[in-house]
Amino acid sequence: MIEDKNQQRTPLSGFGEFGLIDHLTKNFKINQSSTIKGIGDDAAVLNFENKKIVITTDLLVEGVHFDLSYMPLKHLGYKAVVVNLSDVYAMNAKATQITVSIAVSNRFPVEALEDIYAGIETAAKIYDIDVIGGDTTSSTTGLLISITAIGEVEDEVYRNGAKPKDLLVVTGDLGAAFMGLQVLEREKEVYKVNPNSQPDLEPYTYIIERQLKPEARKDIIKLLKDLDVKPTSMIDISDGLSSEIIHLCKQSNVGCDLYEDKIPLDPQVISTCEEFNIDSTTVALNGGEDYELLFTISQSDFPKIQANPNFSVIGYMKEANEGMHLVTRADSKIPIKAQGWKNFND
Amino acid sequence: MIEDKNQQRTPLSGFGEFGLIDHLTKNFKINQSSTIKGIGDDAAVLNFENKKIVITTDLLVEGVHFDLSYMPLKHLGYKAVVVNLSDVYAMNAKATQITVSIAVSNRFPVEALEDIYAGIETAAKIYDIDVIGGDTTSSTTGLLISITAIGEVEDEVYRNGAKPKDLLVVTGDLGAAFMGLQVLEREKEVYKVNPNSQPDLEPYTYIIERQLKPEARKDIIKLLKDLDVKPTSMIDISDGLSSEIIHLCKQSNVGCDLYEDKIPLDPQVISTCEEFNIDSTTVALNGGEDYELLFTISQSDFPKIQANPNFSVIGYMKEANEGMHLVTRADSKIPIKAQGWKNFND
């Protein structure tokens, strides 16, 4: 929302495709021993010796997944990496490499791509992954980022291993990214009416950061290993808790009781929900973009995680024919329905 | 250019994201022993045991890389796979898996996506690869396909291994895809003026097929192995012969003499070039999209490939300080310059 009148604008047409990729990736370092050859040939070459690998890909589209009027480009680059790594961690794997493809219209100067790549580079450093390839091309409109993430895994965890009586556990807290988005959307509307208004975003710092610069739970994979806990099933929360619970239940052929009073909420989420007059449970269930991990463990593993503030036990798994329910604070049972983002709706 | 008034149009909004991916990929089979888990979890799981892997990614954008007014969607799906596999083969690797991400606007019905996936499925069958993941999302405009291809390799060939005195070899023939595009562009203009005109495309079948449904040279990788030839360097021809020669020379730190009279051209390319009054050598050098393999071999390997109609020796490598030149039919020497597609030009 803040316009910098002095920003430099170098047109993309000043670079050939190869010159541009070289320019954007020249600072990128290779740290993973599994990367034999990164950017610069027809393909990257990797050697995982006798480890299995995981691979996942995600597409972020301007106007659908992000709005550049409040998403700084550096944050966008960072977030694009993080949402992919989150899928790698959800397999109980270690993320090792990514490829990055960007389609961008000529309305963006080279400096815009530099900002996106700066965010990508920061994420690569923090999560210790190598950027090993990609493609940069023009688009007729808008900006689109496609990232593929690769990881190595010894003991992968699928969505389909949950058993009745397993405990349902979630990391961190939920609903913050969604409420951060509500605040940003509101400020955008205010800005349209009065471009000179100075928003006070201080009460929303945590939820806005969760929206603009989410983190993937690399730490949890290490923690689970240290605690000697192997989840029976796992998924990351990108579309919202209810949608992910349904995935785990359907693929594992189990049911679930989810306890409303156990869902972890940050105080900022609760106060902002009150301000916006939105039900915080609905936000936690359907908001999405939390990038927390949702997993099931055998009850015998409960003592290992019980005292750890990273984990909340929010429900337990039942027989499939018992269905999937939210047990409310008033002790009534409501069927869980997916209401995650439906990007194809008109 | 032919409109089917009776075609079925199911809106994309009729499916949730997950339902849509399930619907589009339900027929896809897993054939590769390295695929442990394909579509359906947070990530695919692969096991190459102790083989190295190669990975490459490409982005195809409507209005930049393809024009739907003459590119049938099935062909587009097929071509999107092939251009990625070509990069895998250019590493001397065996292609094994792909992920497919598609961004598409609501103006496309589900049947359009089904056509694209039908092309992808056909390519996957013919090249014996597994489709192991992907993402399908909406875009604000247009169609975009991002594919990542994975392969396994024992003895990879890079771009940087060419030595002075090595022979420069190309597979197949060059320039056909570019001339096919010229014919299609011309027909599009004719159609705009007179939608009832019936074009006679019979004289152009080969070059149009090379544009709309190119093939990657999987067969060459097997052939080279059978002939016991390991190229010293290799690249695939996507941007044009001159641009690829420059890549090999720069990365190998060598020079090159390319002989104009040795460049393989199909008779249809020659006759169409005459019709369009374009120089066929320029087309071969700068046309691109041939997806043939360009490689260098040690002179001692020459007898092994000499009699094989798949290969044309088109030049030989020199010391870097001797530069890169086209030796014309008139025996003059012209420096080789890259004039490949520059997608960022205004």
TrEMBL record, chains A, B:
Amino acids binding Mg(2+) 3: 42, 87, 236
GO MF annotations in UniProt: ATP binding; magnesium ion binding; thiamine-phosphate kinase activity
Alphabetized InterPro entries for the sequence: PurM-like_C_sf, PurM-like_N, PurM-like_N_sf, ThiL-like
Domain of life: Bacteria
EC numbers on record: 2.7.4.16
Binding site for Mg(2+) 4: 42, 56, 87
Binding site for ATP: 117, 134-135, 159, 238
Pfam family, one: AIRS
Residues bound to Mg(2+) 2: 58, 87
GO BP annotations listed: thiamine biosynthetic process; thiamine diphosphate biosynthetic process
Reactions mediated catalytically: thiamine phosphate + ATP = thiamine diphosphate + ADP
Enzyme class: transferase
Residues binding substrate: 65, 289, 341
Pathway note: Cofactor biosynthesis; thiamine diphosphate biosynthesis; thiamine diphosphate from thiamine phosphate: step 1/1
Residues where Mg(2+) 1 binds: 57-58, 135
Job of this protein: Catalyzes the ATP-dependent phosphorylation of thiamine-monophosphate (TMP) to form thiamine-pyrophosphate (TPP), the active form of vitamin B1.
Family to which this protein belongs: Belongs to the thiamine-monophosphate kinase family.
Note: Reaction mechanism of ThiL seems to utilize a direct, inline transfer of the gamma-phosphate of ATP to TMP rather than a phosphorylated enzyme intermediate.
Protein name per UniProt: Thiamine-monophosphate kinase
Organism from which the protein derives: Mariniflexile fucanivorans
